[in-house]
Amino acid sequence: MSYFSKKHLKRRNQFRELGATMAEQGYVILNGFFDAKDLSAFDAELKYILANRNSKAGNMTIDVLDGPLMQQRLLLQQAPEEALFVPYKINDMYLESEACLNLNLNHELRALLKSLLDGLPMVVNSLSFTQGSQQPHHFDYYYMPPFVQDKMVVSSICLENQTEDSGPVSYYPESHKIPPYRFSDGGVGVIADEMDRAKAYTLAEIEKRGLVEESFIGKAGDVFLWHGSLYHRGRPILNTRATRKTLVTHYWRSCDVAKKHVAKTSNGGLYFTREHAPANSH
Ligand SMILES: O=C(O)CCC(=O)C(=O)O
Questions:
Q1: Atom 2, ligand 1: which residue's CA is nearest?
Q2: What is the pLDDT of residues 257-277, one digit of tens each?
């Protein structure tokens, strides 16, 4: 008699397959993972927060991605209307919103992440946006290097159907195999002045390996998971009216983080507990 039930075996095999794809390609796609009910709870909470910006959730920051306030990080409570009429992203909604934690720490998703990371996943950062981020090419370890290289996974949850002209995420399959560029301090975390050299190194590696950029255009409820070392970007928005409502979450392993930073949700999910990133203006 097998120790595993049929259901467990099926899941174990599925996870093994997804793990192999992640190791080979640097990403996996989960079609129709969340249903409309899961997504609408998030949407309703976000609407509530935006309509009640003086609440505690107003302590979140937003990064303005276009217009006169571009590149400013503002306290949501203090953000002028003009900052909310251009593309912007909300940082770390997971610290304020149960609906957000219910998505990024969904039970099944956690089980898969545990298998991909070989350890319990914890949320270390989240960003949510209505319009595409248009973020230039980068590796996520530039900005949040995990304590153990390669032990970071990112989820991008589609909150609506996406279109080609909405600035979808694009990526180089297999780029996670490129050895990280070492900045002058010996680390992989970005040093802004050295970015040109890091970029030249990466582009040369991409060319040497013949890697070709692809885009992910998902449907509501799909999840795009990528390896923390996958080279990717948010493509330019071609239609300023096109939205791409998305929740992106970065995960490390809880075993790599000091216990004092690890908090638990009521359903056993783990997240990094900390203050919001400080605003840099206003
Ligand atoms: O979905 C996107 O626009 C890209 C987001 C991204 O690059 C990131 O969060 O690291």
A1: 234
A2: 999 999 999 989 999 999 998
The CA 169 to ligand 1 mean position distance, Å, reads 7
Distance CA 79, CA 31 (A): 35
The answer to whether the beta carbons of residues 58 and 97 sit under 8 Å apart is no
- Residue 225 Cα, ligand 1 centroid: separation in angstroms? 11
- CATH numbers and ranges of domains, the chain: 16-272 (2.60.120.620)
- What is the average per-residue pLDDT within 210-231? 98
The full DSSP string for 205-265 is HHHHHT---EEE---TT-EEEEETT--EEEPPPSSTT----EEEEEEEEGGGS-GGGEEE-
| pLDDT tens per residue across span 135-181 | 999 999 999 999 999 999 999 999 999 999 999 999 999 999 999 99
185 - beta bridge partners?
none
